[in-house]
UniProtKB/TrEMBL annotation:
Domain Ubiquitin-like: 64-133
Pfam families: PH_UBFD1_C, ubiquitin
Name assigned to this protein: Ubiquitin-like domain-containing protein
The organism's place on the tree of life at top rank: Eukaryota
Region (Disordered): 1-46
Gene Ontology MF, one: RNA binding
Bias (Acidic residues) ranges: 17-26
Biased composition annotated in UniProt, kind: Polar residues: 1-10, 27-39
């Protein structure tokens, strides 16, 4: 677009048809290229230098444009844009250049450029560089799509999750070998009770050794006792607690207390009375059951 002139040139209307103009006509039709007003005169205005300024060329002179560069990834784009157009409008144009949707763009020029600001307000000058941050829809879809390895692992995990703990080979072997403990505590399905005031017993571990659980809430510890030893474990070091009903004996649960960062560190306990399963989890994981 043409730039606005620095000097004011007084001009008189140009008309192809010779007419006699009085003083009022000359005054009302006098114009300048700094202040072009609509006129019914098809010839526009004639300046002192002989230049014809029409309504169309006057409007063009009012719009200032600037040349700058838009940078996206490793690509540079030369852009010519109006100084009084907004960042939002620039984003629409950038979408046609880069393929990055307008809504997913962030324009960086002396910080984050807000949509409502004009390029003039941002102080964009000739040769300036505006950086685009954002992803195309294809990029988003490719990142979101799981790899074959991830799909295989997910399928394996799903299959494992569907198999009850008590039906897994490692646990089924233990249950079949040691059966139900002789001193087992009565269990009740579909009930939730607070922890007993005495250690929870009548259970065993994967080796068939008898296990008792003592909850030392005042010292924030779980004591796992066997015939050979008692391990005093800080509750905040326990990563997770999982449990499921034992198939065919739903009054009791098979419970895993995770002592390390991976599932391989789970300490498995068999024949936990069902009514205490939730209270054990809540006590260990921080939801104290103060009854």
């Amino acid at each position: 677009m043409a730039s606005t002139a620095d000097t004011t040139e007084v001009c008189t209307p140009v008309d192809d048809t010779p007419t006699e103009l009085n003083e009022d006509d000359l005054t009302s039709n006098t114009c300048s290229n700094n202040d072009t007003k609509p006129t019914n005169d098809p010839g526009g205005c004639l300046t002192d230098t002989g230049k014809i300024v029409t309504q169309e060329t006057g409007d063009q002179n009012l719009e200032e444009r600037v040349n700058f560069k838009v940078i996206y990834n490793k690509s540079k784009y030369d852009v010519n844009f109006g100084l009084d157009e907004t960042v939002k409008e620039l984003k629409e144009h950038i979408q046609t250049l880069t393929g990055v949707p307008q809504a997913m763009q962030k324009l960086m020029f002396r910080g984050l450029a807000k949509d409502e600001l004009t390029l003039r307000e941002l102080k964009v000058t000739k040769g300036a560089k505006i950086m685009v941050v954002g992803s195309t829809l294809n990029d988003v879809l490719s990142v979101s799509a799981p790899s074959k390895k991830e799909l295989a692992e997910a399928a394996k995990a799903e299959a494992s999750a569907k198999e009850p703990f008590s039906e897994m080979k490692q646990h089924k072997k233990v249950l079949d070998k040691y059966g139900k403990p002789e001193d087992i505590t009565p269990g009740y399905r579909n009930r939730k009770e607070p922890l007993p005031t005495v250690p929870l017993s009548g259970m065993y571990n994967k080796s068939g050794g008898k296990v008792r659980l003592t909850f030392k809430l005042e010292s924030d510890q779980l004591w796992i006792g066997t015939k050979e030893r008692t391990d005093k474990i800080p509750m905040n070091s326990i990563k997770a607690v999982v449990s499921e009903p034992i198939k065919g004996h739903e009054d009791y649960h098979l419970m895993g207390i995770q002592l390390g960062p991976t599932e391989a560190s789970r300490y498995w306990i068999y024949w936990v009375p069902a009514q205490y399963a939730d209270s054990v989890k809540d006590s260990i994981l921080g939801k104290w059951q103060l009854f």
